[in-house]
């Protein structure tokens, strides 16, 4: 919207001028109308006056003639005479005197038979008409009659003694009257003849002057006259004629009409002065109007220009507010020393106030922005830089590698078992612990290094300008040392360790995200190795992680595609050969890679959600198989299920197992849960609590791979364990290796002492079996009796190998040629 700019003064000026113009036009047309009115009044007065004078003179003339005639008839005693002969004679005698004194031109004496008794001239029709009228009305009759010049015709009836009537008619010239009128009216007069036309307008130039007090003037004026509309308009308004420097008003009075000829008395007024007055008035009016206009324009400009100047000043200054130049804005002088304030002063004052308020607001915004930046860059709980800051600083450090020719290291820290502290002591204590931990991390690094909180119980340290990775390792060791000391929170004492992954680079192309994720991978390695230590990232770690990720994906698919199955390996009572139960072992028939050993993927999936999912599938399958075995006729059979550490940490496990028990209406006594020593030592308290919970339900526990880990009798006593499984590695060499044999025999003795049962796995030969039996081993599991039997073949195999729950012992076979089929 780009409108044309018109300033306020201009607008005001336009407004005022148009108002004035309107008023001026109104007033001037009013006064012009007044003038016109005056003029036409003047003109009408003239006409009326003229008419009156004409009538007056007419009357005087008639009266004079009438008086003379009356006195004349009296003198000749007409009323006592029988005829009119005396009258005729006397009239003839008096004619000269009449001509001389009363300007009578002609006399006609006519009797009632239309006989002319006396006439000084012809007997024209006009006279005849006049006379006829008198005879008819018996009254005097007069008219103006203009044959060549205008005359007054006066006819009077006269009676004799007998009552006979004659009419005497006298005509007298009007020239005298004309001069008398000129004198009395003080203006020139004329008599003219005009032919009245019907269609076109009247034109005075056609007029013929019959007589005039000023012949030249009259003729020149009439020649100048322009055509007028009608005769009546001419009679009413008169004629305005301008000649040379003078103006004249011609008023016409009709004297007589003969045929289409009219005879008019023209009154000529010199209205030059009048016109001049009119013109002067108009000039004065225009002059004073323009003077007022210009004065007003000046006044408006004078009043409004400082106003608009200040307004423009203010509008030019306002953008300064947006530019936050508040001081500069306030220096703009918007005030004027004035007695009275106006709207602009109010506006100036409010904009000043606005500038102060905006400045205040700006300060607040700046402060809040800083706070927000802090929130954005720093962790609220620990006050350490947060992830945003870390990313920013790490990118900066990596960018500097080329310049400083040095290395950058990222240390990824994760507190060990922090979740437990949070779960058992509450988040409040957890937070306090994190603050302390953060402080320990912070004091372990130098001024130029960055210690940040990555999230949860994870911290990331960035070290720059390193000569070698050794400097990073030094820092890691310092951190580990810091965490050796206990953390005291109120009455609680915590021992918190941390796992550290170190990733180091001297490469210019290294990406910050990659470096962090490498350190993260190394940290997991440290954690998998028991925590409280550091690991340096190397390429294999990444491959392991990649492999793990791939496996996780495959396992999920394998579950859906039912590529998993179980094989059951029989466990047999050493003494009675009774079938004690089976150990359920997982099998994965991969479509491309064939049969994959559980040892190749279970350790890798350990701790992952996928393993828990897979674990639940295994447990459910074991329940189904148990049900089937019971149906087959083997009621008192125990199925051993291997549980990984991750499964055992899952709080949902007891609930899941209870649900299955009721779903399949099986007793928990039918199941033995195998835990490795590693699982046991990982989180002792938690494991014991879980074992106790499950024990209450009725499940029994076996310690798998006994002898390979840190198992000690001390903690065996604390746990609700029922079975100890001697690891197959001892069994394999028991007959050749004396120490293995010793371990087996002492373990059996000790376990028996505790009232527990012993299972030997990996029994492949009759010799091993014999030795174990002799040493009081309760249960034998191994290829000697049977390899793990695929679930599909289970019942065929049982048919073949068992009789009423007892394992059929084949003829003595040479060692190493065990009876079991391949799994
Ligand atoms: P483990 O629990 O120690 O299982 C015993 C392993 O020894 C089985 O290997 C079994 O086939 C093998 N074995 C049994 N008798 C003999 C023998 O006479 N000679 C020899 N050389 N080997 C024998 P497998 O089935 O490959 O399982 C390996 C490991 O995978 C298991 O060791 C166990 O730790 C794990 N595993 C298997 N199934 C599961 C499962 O369902 N859940 C969990 N969490 N782990 C499982
Ligand atoms: Ca096992
Ligand atoms: Ca084992």
What does the model show?
This protein is α+β, with helices and mostly antiparallel strands and 823 residues long. It folds into five domains: 116 residues; 101 residues, PAS domain (Beta-Lactamase), CATH 3.30.450.20; 84 residues, no CATH class; 166 residues, Alpha-Beta Plaits; 273 residues, EAL domain (TIM Barrel, Alpha-Beta Barrel), CATH 3.20.20. Helices cover 52% and strands 21% of the residues. The strands form six sheets. It has an eight-stranded mixed β-barrel with strand order 18-19-21-22-23-24-25-26. The protein has a five-stranded antiparallel beta sheet with strand order 2-1-5-4-3, sandwiched between helices. A five-stranded antiparallel beta sheet has the order 7-6-10-9-8, sandwiched between helices. α1 crosses α2, α1 crosses α4 and α17 packs parallel to α19. The C terminus is likely disordered. The structure holds ligand C2E and calcium ion (2 copies). The site of ligand C2E has 23 residues, from β19, α16 and β23. Ligand C2E binds next to β19, α16 and β23. It holds the Pfam family EAL.
How do the helices and strands line up, and which of them pair or pack?
Layout: H1 8-76, H2 85-102, E1 104-111, E2 116-119, H3 125-137, E3 141-145, E4 151-159, E5 165-173, H4 175-185, E6 188-195, E7 208-212, H5 215-224, H6 231-237, E8 239-243, E9 246-258, E10 261-270, H7 272-317, H8 319-322, H9 326-331, H10 343-377, H11 387-404, E11 407-415, H12 418-443, E12 450-455, E13 458-466, H13 469-482, E14 487-489, E15 492-494, E16 498-505, H14 512-528, E17 534-536, H15 539-560, E18 564-573, E19 579-590, E20 594-596, H16 598-605, H17 609-632, E21 638-642, H18 645-649, H19 653-664, E22 671-676, H20 677-682, H21 684-697, E23 700-706, H22 713-718, E24 723-726, H23 728-733, H24 738-753, E25 757-760, H25 766-774, E26 779-780, E27 789-790, H26 794-801, E28 802-803, E29 806-807
Parallel strand pairs: 16-17, 19-21, 21-22, 22-23, 23-24, 24-25, 25-26
Antiparallel strand pairs: 1-2, 1-5, 3-4, 4-5, 6-7, 6-10, 8-9, 9-10, 11-13, 11-16, 12-13, 14-15, 18-19, 18-26, 18-27, 19-20, 28-29
Helix pairs in contact: 1-2, 1-4, 1-7, 15-17, 17-19
The structure holds ligand C2E and calcium ion (2 copies).
One calcium ion (CA) binds next to loops.
